[in-house]
Design goal:
224 residues, alpha+beta, Archaeosine Trna-guanine Transglycosylase, Chain: A, domain 4, 2 domains, 5-stranded mixed β-barrel, 5 helices
Length: 224
């Protein structure tokens, strides 16, 4: 039976829908993040054709490396660019949209389709601007120290979000090589909690880089 994009319906007060799933190991997509993909497997070529004929949306789900199972929370991706290439393959550009909780798998073949419910952060119980500033400050320090250690110019991105929720997602999406932390942050529904986790990670990195910078300065002094 071909997949049909069902409208969101209310079931037990949760907005749910069926969503084609694209499992990817060691990759966590966040809202507003741009994700290019090369589609070459037959089942995902079928998935792409299906979503292009409907609402252009499918779910990116990380695979738990310990269990081999799909993680419970993923992020919806919308195809914004599509370029077919030879052999039936495609290059696409997607952008992260809403997060979802995977309730169950409703079909396995030719590609997985899951029943999902949309999730979002709860309204903040505290002002988050000061915490956002601390995160931005730690990020600035990390980039400054990295530039000093590598001898290359590293600048704060012009597109760094100012809103707390968006900032927390941006930092989480740029934690390269930290997939377990990224998955945990994707699953958080408290913006403050996600920002505090981001700050802890950035502060830890800042301390390590500062120590390496001191050692590099001492070595330079000794050499001279």
């Amino acid at each position: 039976m071909p997949f049909t994009a069902f409208p969101d319906v209310m079931v037990e007060r949760l907005a749910v829908r069926e969503l084609p799933l694209f499992p990817l190991p060691n990759l966590v997509l966040f809202p507003e993040e741009v994700l290019p993909l090369h589609i070459f497997e037959h089942r995902y070529r079928m998935l792409l054709r299906t979503v292009l004929e409907s609402d252009r949306r499918f779910g990116i789900v990380n695979i738990n490396p310990e269990t081999g199972q799909l993680c419970e929370v993923g992020c919806c991706a919308e195809v914004v660019q599509h370029k077919p290439i030879e052999g039936g393959r495609s290059n696409v550009v997607t952008v992260g949209q809403q997060r979802f909780r995977l309730l169950e798998i409703v079909r396995e073949k030719p590609f997985r389709i899951g029943l999902v419910s949309w999730i979002d952060d709860a309204p903040p119980a505290e002002p988050l601007q000061e915490l956002s500033c601390s995160v931005s400050g730690a990020l600035t320090d990390v980039l400054t120290l990295t530039a000093k250690l590598t001898g290359k110019e590293v600048r704060m991105p012009d597109t760094l979000p100012s809103l707390p929720r968006e900032l927390s997602f941006w930092v989480a999406s740029h934690l390269h090589g930290a997939t377990p932390h990224q998955q945990a942050m994707l699953e958080m529904t408290d913006t403050g909690q996600r920002l505090r986790h981001a700050y802890e990670l950035l502060d830890g990195t800042r301390r390590q880089l500062a120590a390496r910078t001191v050692l590099k300065d001492l070595e330079s002094e000794s050499a001279s």
